[in-house]
Amino acid sequence: MNPFINLTIPAKAEYVDIVRLALFGIANKAGFSFEDIEDLKVAVTEACTNVVLHAYSNQQPGMIDIRFELEDRGICIHIKDEGSSFEYEHAVNKVASLHDKALSELTPGGLGIFMMHALMDKVEVRTDKGTEVILTKLIGRKEEMA
Protein backbone atom coordinates (compact mmCIF):
# COMPACT_ATOMS: atom_id res chain seq x y z
CA MET A 1 0.00 0.00 0.00
CA ASN A 2 1.29 3.43 -0.93
CA PRO A 3 1.77 5.97 1.87
CA PHE A 4 -0.89 8.66 2.19
CA ILE A 5 -1.64 11.73 4.28
CA ASN A 6 -5.17 13.00 4.99
CA LEU A 7 -6.04 16.60 5.77
CA THR A 8 -9.49 18.05 6.47
CA ILE A 9 -10.07 21.80 6.48
CA PRO A 10 -13.11 24.10 6.65
CA ALA A 11 -14.26 25.14 3.17
CA LYS A 12 -13.15 28.73 3.71
CA ALA A 13 -10.59 30.68 1.70
CA GLU A 14 -8.35 31.39 4.71
CA TYR A 15 -7.62 27.65 5.15
CA VAL A 16 -6.44 26.93 1.59
CA ASP A 17 -2.91 28.07 2.49
CA ILE A 18 -2.69 25.14 4.93
CA VAL A 19 -3.24 22.76 2.02
CA ARG A 20 -0.57 24.54 -0.03
CA LEU A 21 1.94 24.33 2.84
CA ALA A 22 1.26 20.63 3.40
CA LEU A 23 1.52 19.99 -0.34
CA PHE A 24 4.88 21.76 -0.52
CA GLY A 25 6.33 19.61 2.25
CA ILE A 26 4.95 16.36 0.86
CA ALA A 27 5.95 17.05 -2.77
CA ASN A 28 9.42 18.24 -1.73
CA LYS A 29 10.01 15.09 0.32
CA ALA A 30 8.78 12.98 -2.65
CA GLY A 31 11.44 14.54 -4.92
CA PHE A 32 9.42 16.89 -7.14
CA SER A 33 11.23 19.83 -8.75
CA PHE A 34 10.43 23.39 -7.66
CA GLU A 35 8.58 23.98 -10.97
CA ASP A 36 6.45 20.86 -10.53
CA ILE A 37 5.65 21.83 -6.94
CA GLU A 38 4.47 25.24 -8.15
CA ASP A 39 2.26 23.54 -10.78
CA LEU A 40 0.82 21.26 -8.10
CA LYS A 41 0.13 24.21 -5.81
CA VAL A 42 -1.74 26.11 -8.55
CA ALA A 43 -3.87 23.08 -9.51
CA VAL A 44 -4.71 22.16 -5.91
CA THR A 45 -5.52 25.79 -5.07
CA GLU A 46 -7.91 25.93 -8.04
CA ALA A 47 -9.67 22.74 -6.91
CA CYS A 48 -9.97 23.95 -3.30
CA THR A 49 -11.14 27.40 -4.40
CA ASN A 50 -13.89 25.81 -6.48
CA VAL A 51 -15.12 24.07 -3.32
CA VAL A 52 -14.98 27.31 -1.31
CA LEU A 53 -16.88 29.27 -3.99
CA HIS A 54 -19.40 26.72 -5.23
CA ALA A 55 -19.88 23.56 -3.17
CA TYR A 56 -21.56 24.95 -0.07
CA SER A 57 -22.97 28.23 -1.37
CA ASN A 58 -26.54 27.70 -0.12
CA GLN A 59 -25.65 25.72 2.99
CA GLN A 60 -23.62 26.00 6.15
CA PRO A 61 -19.92 26.06 5.30
CA GLY A 62 -18.72 22.50 4.95
CA MET A 63 -15.40 20.74 4.94
CA ILE A 64 -12.82 19.82 2.31
CA ASP A 65 -11.10 16.44 2.60
CA ILE A 66 -7.68 16.25 0.96
CA ARG A 67 -5.78 13.00 0.53
CA PHE A 68 -2.17 13.01 -0.66
CA GLU A 69 -1.17 9.57 -1.99
CA LEU A 70 2.49 9.01 -2.76
CA GLU A 71 3.02 6.61 -5.64
CA ASP A 72 6.14 5.06 -7.15
CA ARG A 73 6.34 7.65 -9.90
CA GLY A 74 4.45 10.61 -8.48
CA ILE A 75 1.59 11.86 -6.37
CA CYS A 76 -2.17 11.59 -6.53
CA ILE A 77 -4.18 14.26 -4.70
CA HIS A 78 -7.89 13.82 -3.93
CA ILE A 79 -9.90 16.97 -3.13
CA LYS A 80 -13.40 16.01 -1.94
CA ASP A 81 -16.44 17.86 -0.67
CA GLU A 82 -19.98 16.87 0.30
CA GLY A 83 -21.58 19.94 -1.25
CA SER A 84 -23.32 20.67 -4.53
CA SER A 85 -21.89 18.94 -7.59
CA PHE A 86 -21.58 20.41 -11.06
CA GLU A 87 -21.77 19.18 -14.64
CA TYR A 88 -18.13 18.32 -15.30
CA GLU A 89 -18.62 17.33 -18.96
CA HIS A 90 -20.26 20.68 -19.68
CA ALA A 91 -17.39 22.52 -17.99
CA VAL A 92 -14.76 20.53 -19.93
CA ASN A 93 -16.56 21.21 -23.23
CA LYS A 94 -16.69 24.92 -22.38
CA VAL A 95 -12.94 24.88 -21.67
CA ALA A 96 -12.19 23.03 -24.93
CA SER A 97 -13.87 25.85 -26.85
CA LEU A 98 -11.46 28.41 -25.36
CA HIS A 99 -8.45 27.35 -27.45
CA ASP A 100 -9.27 29.49 -30.49
CA LYS A 101 -10.51 32.57 -28.63
CA ALA A 102 -8.79 35.86 -27.96
CA LEU A 103 -8.19 36.84 -24.34
CA SER A 104 -10.83 39.60 -24.65
CA GLU A 105 -13.49 36.97 -25.49
CA LEU A 106 -12.99 34.92 -22.31
CA THR A 107 -15.64 34.95 -19.60
CA PRO A 108 -15.22 34.01 -15.93
CA GLY A 109 -15.70 30.39 -14.95
CA GLY A 110 -14.10 27.20 -16.11
CA LEU A 111 -10.54 28.48 -16.31
CA GLY A 112 -9.60 26.59 -13.14
CA ILE A 113 -10.48 23.31 -14.83
CA PHE A 114 -8.46 24.36 -17.87
CA MET A 115 -5.45 25.12 -15.65
CA MET A 116 -5.74 21.81 -13.78
CA HIS A 117 -5.69 19.91 -17.08
CA ALA A 118 -2.76 21.98 -18.36
CA LEU A 119 -0.63 21.51 -15.22
CA MET A 120 -1.37 17.90 -14.24
CA ASP A 121 -0.67 14.61 -15.98
CA LYS A 122 -4.18 13.36 -15.20
CA VAL A 123 -7.38 14.96 -13.89
CA GLU A 124 -10.42 12.94 -12.83
CA VAL A 125 -13.70 14.32 -11.47
CA ARG A 126 -16.38 12.31 -9.69
CA THR A 127 -19.70 13.97 -8.97
CA ASP A 128 -21.86 11.22 -7.46
CA LYS A 129 -22.00 12.49 -3.83
CA GLY A 130 -20.50 15.93 -3.66
CA THR A 131 -17.47 16.40 -5.88
CA GLU A 132 -14.10 14.68 -5.85
CA VAL A 133 -11.26 16.01 -7.99
CA ILE A 134 -8.30 13.67 -8.39
CA LEU A 135 -5.08 15.28 -9.61
CA THR A 136 -2.12 13.13 -10.63
CA LYS A 137 1.41 14.43 -11.28
CA LEU A 138 4.34 12.22 -12.20
CA ILE A 139 7.88 13.06 -11.15
CA GLY A 140 10.07 14.23 -14.03
CA ARG A 141 7.35 13.78 -16.66
CA LYS A 142 8.45 16.76 -18.78
CA GLU A 143 12.05 15.57 -18.87
CA GLU A 144 10.95 12.08 -19.93
CA MET A 145 8.88 13.48 -22.77
CA ALA A 146 11.71 15.61 -24.17
Automatic annotation (TrEMBL):
It holds the Pfam family HATPase_c_2. GO terms for molecular function: protein serine/threonine kinase activity. Coiled coil: none annotated. It comes from the Bacteria. Keywords: Kinase, Serine/threonine-protein kinase, Transferase. Residues 9-137 form the Histidine kinase/HSP90-like ATPase domain. CDD domains: HATPase_RsbW-like. This is Serine/threonine-protein kinase RsbW. The lineage of its organism: Bacteria, Bacillati, Bacillota, Bacilli, Bacillales.
